[in-house]
User: What shape does this take?
Amino acid sequence: MSLRQRSLAGQPSWQLRLLLAAFLLVASCLVSTTEAFYLPGSAPRSFAPGDPVPLLVNALSPQISSKKRLQSLLPYDYYNPAFHFCRPGDGKTEPKKVSESLGSVLFGDRLYESPFEVRMLQNTSCRTLCKSTIPAEDAKFINDRIREDYALNWLVDGLPVAEMQKDVATGEIFYSVGFELGNDSDGKKPALNNHFNLYVEYHRRPNNLFRVVGVVVWPMSLDSLPSDGNGQPTCDENAAPLVLNEGRENTIAYTYSVNWIESTKPWATRWDSYLKLTDSRVHWFSLINSTIICVFLCVMVGMILMRTVNRDVSRYNAIDLSDDIQEDFGWKLVHAEVFRQPQHPMLLSIVNGSGSQFGAMLVVAIFFALLGFLSPSNRGGLSTVMIVCWTLFGCIAGYVSTRLYASLGGQAWKQNILWTATLFPTVLFATLNLLNFFLIGGGSSGAVPFGTFMSIIALWFLVSAPLTVAGSVYGMKKGPLQHPVRVNSIPRQIPPQIWYLKTVPAAIMAGVLPFGAAFIEIYFVLSSLFGAKAFYAFGFLALTLIVVALTTATVTILMTYFSLCSENWQWHWRAFIIGGGSAFWILAYGIIYGARLSLDGISSKVLYLGYLLLIALLDFIVTGTIGYLSTYYFLRKMYAQIRVD
Assistant: This one.
């Protein structure tokens, strides 16, 4: 078996039902007699000799390889009529669809039964799946997909069918999820893979039972039918590659072989070969670099707090308030302006409420991933958890938005509750719905079904919106935060500011630090989202997010302190925009990353740009909220330390 020198490629594959998982977790803690439990979809399944082992097929997806750039973002249904793949039964009935989680459907997974017959411990050789006739126009369609490096995605007992590959850096062997539709190497005509050698690893269990612990495929392109298209295929490995003629009708045969290989690998570790982290030194280098940046910023802010601010506070408090003349300078000079109501307080409170909601969603989702609840056998688990968490955390958005709005002196609390529950969900759903039309127009299986959209809207109106109202009511009962200093009736004039302390330059300069702290992980995340590469380094991701949050908070506090020292008391929106400054760098990097791809067609380009804008928007909201709330807390503490007349 040949080993292709390329890096790990695959699709994220998780599925989890959050509420049931939480119930099982609580039950395991409360019931002392419980020894172990399995999450849905992760329990082992044992087979007796001769038992059928189901092989499911998933959507075809474009992948980034070591030789080609990504050329498309449109996944295709496996049973798309243009591919003419073999269907179960008589080939005319519609294949049975396998139920999936909400997150799996949203991310384009489409699981169907297949006509492959795989039975435990029964080897087969050159079994004919079916013969297929491909018209000229569909031959061109298939050849174009081969040139775009599309991959087939199969599942056997929940395990992805993979290709065995070698890590160029370390020389280690690992399993690469998915395998090529065809071969288009060395500039030759694209050859369709129509013969599949399946190597299924099994682990022996007591009572003559067996478990599947690995599935490897060796796809081949064999023009093994007689020239007239009649007769049986020979599966001769020396046959010429199968090249589809785009000028006439093509008759081809799909064949496969199954070989069972005993393995000492236990079922519990069967995913290890799939989830190998390529070159972990890169992640460690990124994490160490991010930590150094974070420590440097924390030391700077600590010096400001312990030396500069304390020195200023001591000097301000040492002034005799009974004197007729009292000299204020620095940040104390604007103490009567700092907590003045900013422009558009309702919008400011809404974005902070939504940012808190999204931030809590990310924290809980990654926490579940770190605990191992998001098993890779549960497809779509991560996205399902994020959707459920976003729905349940509407109460956080309502509480933060309402209480902050009251603290800023807002009075129209009914409008605040309404807009908190509807503004950003409307923007998000409208954008996704627009992008969905491009998926539908491109004939992609990634198009979200109408019923799924209605399910999300039902979650929004029936769960998230009522929880937002409940959180808002609780925030109203808690009342506004009390500011440590009073506000003058007449606003103070702001002197001219140095150019680098203005909002946009400050945001761009401050945003480069959080972006630099997460640069490497951003690359892997973008490769996972757009390049169909597997990402399972949740430990590195969690530590990176902690560093980014600390870096964002400290750099925003630092820039706000400098601004107050220059007598600019309008800090509210500045703090939010400076905190979200990393979004500008993510957008710029995403554009550069996209320019390196070879996306064909208006649909792929619009989809890439649309998803990139959504990622940048969510980052802006979350990091902006971190920057604003941390600065608000810092200023309340700082101004509470001084005596004012």
The longest strand covers residues 250-262.
